[in-house]
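Severity: low
Component: inverse-folding endpoint
Summary: output formatting inconsistent between runs
Steps to reproduce: submit the following structure tokens with default settings.
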């Protein structure tokens, strides 16, 4: 990997965007390497923790490359295809955001299941100022995340949110000092990892199903989980623990 630093932690994969000389701008090489990460996580589902280096998550797409792209490049959906793939990964994705998360960097963060940040976070989509639009998910994901009025302000006026503003609208869920950002991301990953992996995977899939698929998809998914060994083992462990606690109180 030339643009990513990867650490395999067993039940999770930690991936750092690593182009600090250009504030981790997302170029074609990074896109290609992130596709390799996705392929690995699709074969062997694990939690993904995404972060940046040098006090920056990602300042956006690489403008030097973006300037040269034409109609056919836009129609190919270079970034949108990748970010959709990341959003559909079997296990949850955590984005740990420090400094700039702008343009394509913001859209990458929007594709994650969880976003946490530092006080230095600046997140938004200033693409219209460059004569383009945020075409890798922001025009629809952002409305789902923060509501239409604020989404329009970000997309149409170029408003960039600071960490407190992002927290207030729940675009991020936690703020941590930079030194504690990755430890906090891993604490969240630890909580996810304590859940049953199959139940977590199926819950994520059902959550993202279209409205018309409910409630049938919920019932079918529950039917699968009702037959899993983990369901019986975990419920028996719960009952045994409660019984032990009750006896200790007597």
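Observed output (run 2 of 3):
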């Amino acid at each position: 990997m030339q643009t990513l630093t990867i650490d395999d932690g067993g039940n999770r994969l930690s991936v750092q965007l690593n182009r600090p000389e250009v504030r981790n701008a997302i170029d074609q090489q990074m896109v290609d390497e992130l596709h390799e990460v996705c392929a690995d996580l699709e074969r062997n589902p694990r939690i993904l923790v995404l972060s940046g280096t040098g006090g920056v998550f990602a300042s956006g797409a690489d403008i030097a490359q973006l300037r040269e792209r034409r109609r056919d490049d836009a129609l190919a959906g270079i970034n949108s295809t990748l970010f959709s793939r990341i959003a559909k990964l079997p296990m949850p994705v955590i984005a740990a955001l420090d400094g700039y998360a702008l343009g394509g960097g913001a859209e990458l963060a929007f594709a994650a299941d969880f976003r946490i940040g530092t006080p230095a976070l600046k997140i938004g989509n200033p693409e219209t100022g460059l004569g383009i639009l945020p075409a890798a998910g922001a025009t629809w994901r952002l409305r789902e995340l923060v509501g239409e009025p604020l989404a329009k302000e970000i997309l149409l006026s170029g408003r960039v949110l600071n960490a407190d503003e992002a927290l207030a609208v729940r675009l991020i869920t936690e703020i941590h000092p930079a030194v504690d950002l990755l430890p906090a991301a891993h604490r969240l990953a630890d909580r996810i990892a304590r859940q049953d992996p199959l139940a977590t995977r199926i819950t994520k899939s059902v959550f993202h199903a279209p409205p018309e698929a409910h409630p049938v998809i919920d019932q079918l998914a529950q039917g699968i989980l009702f037959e899993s060994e983990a369901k019986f083992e975990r419920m028996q462990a719960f009952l045994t623990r409660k019984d032990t606690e009750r006896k200790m109180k007597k």
